[in-house]
From TrEMBL:
Belongs to the cysteine synthase/cystathionine beta-synthase family. It catalyses: O-acetyl-L-serine + hydrogen sulfide = L-cysteine + acetate. Its EC number is 2.5.1.47. Keywords: Amino-acid biosynthesis, Cysteine biosynthesis, Pyridoxal phosphate, Transferase. Pfam families: PALP. Residues 4-280 form the Tryptophan synthase beta chain-like PALP domain. It is an enzyme of class 2 (transferase). Gene3D superfamilies: 3.40.50.1100. This is Cysteine synthase. Pathway: Amino-acid biosynthesis; L-cysteine biosynthesis; L-cysteine from L-serine: step 2/2. The gene is cysM. One of its GO terms (molecular function) is cysteine synthase activity.
């Protein structure tokens, strides 16, 4: 069995401490259990495999992609298994764990100025495509990103909740997860509510974005999101720490943001089955201040 066959079918576990309402259940989709440690394994595999099927890519080609971390890790190992070379462009303030993991998988890394964020990395990746002949997957505009979740993530949630899910909550970065999951779930039951978590102005939450207009991913369709809940950095960090201490779930800050949004939602619910995405694993952030507690 190839390790690629282990992507997906991640556990869905119920909260044991965060919800006190008897008729509301909160579940966590543990995407850190993917081989590469995050939800991004799904679109990385789908984008590369579908491009190969179409003939857009062939063994030995050079890929380039802008990433804030998890997509890069997933693309690094998936591309190697398909015989592709990859250069990953990311902000220089990315955590040491992510940088070392990508290099361990054999990727070339190009670090861009921190003050330009992922937008600056995207500009560099586009330039490498246009001037150096790299193939750009472009997760922000690639329909195979959201289709990965339409084919796998959402059907798993639908099955594992026994078709009882009422609300789905996801951090929004490239928006592939929320777009693909929304598409499938709404086809099963149009009354399922789709909720996106977004940073408040001035808050920096790795993995969650509030894009400037010119950089909004083209795969994003606002009509597929019923509600957007804004989270600040303090809330996301505190919830990430609570997940570890109270739920035994060691995850990154975007997961804390997703769950913080889910609890804000639950404050106004009398009944429901809520599923929140746990995007990755906390060991990617040990060199940061995320788990610094007094």
């Amino acid at each position: 069995m190839s390790i690629l066959k282990q992507i997906g079918n991640t556990p869905l576990v119920e909260s044991v401490s965060l919800v006190s309402k008897p008729n509301v259940r909160l579940f966590f989709k543990l995407e850190g259990n993917n081989p590469g440690g995050s939800v991004k394994d799904r679109p990385a595999y789908n984008m590369i495999s579908e491009a190969l099927k179409r003939g857009d890519l062939k063994k030995g080609d050079r890929l380039v992609e802008a990433t804030s971390g998890n997509t890069g890790i997933a693309l690094a190992y998936v591309s190697q298994l398909f015989g592709l070379k990859i250069a990953l462009v990311m902000p220089e303030n990315s955590t040491e764990e992510r940088i070392k993991t990508m290099r361990a998988y054999g990727a070339e890394l190009i670090l861009t100025p921190a003050d330009r964020g992922i937008e600056g990395s995207r500009d560099v990746a586009f330039n490498m495509r246009d001037t150096e002949g790299y193939f750009l997957l472009n997760q922000f505009e690639n329909d195979d990103n959201w289709r990965a979740h339409n084919k796998t993530t959402a059907p798993e949630i639908w099955k594992d909740t026994e078709h009882k899910i009422t609300h789905f909550v996801s951090a929004m970065g490239t928006t592939g997860t929320i777009m693909g999951t929304s598409t499938f779930l709404k086809e099963q039951n149009k009354n399922i509510q789709i909720i996106g978590a977004q940073p408040e102005d001035g808050s920096r939450i790795p993995g969650i974005r509030k894009w400037s207009p010119e950089y909004v991913p083209s795969i994003f369709n606002r009509d597929k999101v019923d509600k957007i809940i804004e989270i600040n950095e303090t809330e996301a960090k505190a919830m990430t720490q609570r997940l570890a201490k109270e739920e035994g779930i060691f995850a990154g800050m975007s997961s804390g943001g997703s769950v913080a949004a889910a609890l804000k939602l639950i404050d106004n619910l009398d009944h429901g089955v809520v599923v929140a995405i746990i995007c990755d694993r906390g060991d990617r952030y040990l060199s940061s201040s995320l788990f610094d507690v007094s």
